[in-house]
């Protein structure tokens, strides 16, 4: 089951305002992690086209941030095969 709302969605909507209002409390590492979570599995990191050998259906799969364990689950940032 795909979550309806992910942390990345919140960062995309409110991250910039949060960073501006809390700039003195966010370090370089925190800003980089927020950026990585926002970019994970989007066109920002590139992607590729997967095609089913049986039916020929295709889909675009975006690259992950490669952070290893994700806040969305241990396997969320690892490639799942089509």
Beta-strand content? 5-15%
What sequence of helices (H) and strands (E) makes up the elements? HHEE
In the residues, how many domains can be counted?
1
Q: Report the major sheet.
A: 2 strands, antiparallel
DSSP helical segment count? 2
Query: Total strand count, please?
Result: 2
Query: Helicity, in percent?
Result: 25-40%
Instruction: Give the spatial strand order of the biggest sheet.
Output: 1-2
Low-pLDDT runs of 5+ residues are 73-82
Name the descriptors:
82 residues; 2 helices; alpha+beta; single chain; two-stranded antiparallel ribbon; elongated; 33% helix
Polypeptide structure, described:
The chain is α+β, with helices and mostly antiparallel strands and 82 residues long. The chain has one domain (1-82). It contains 2 helices and 2 strands. A two-stranded antiparallel ribbon has the order 1-2. Strand 1 and strand 2 (58-62) form a beta hairpin. The longest helix is centred in the N-terminal third of the chain and has 15 residues, at 7-21. The radius of gyration is 15 Å and the shape is elongated. This is Transposase zinc-binding domain-containing protein. Pfam families: Zn_Tnp_IS91. Residues 10-65 form the Transposase zinc-binding domain. It comes from Bradyrhizobium retamae.
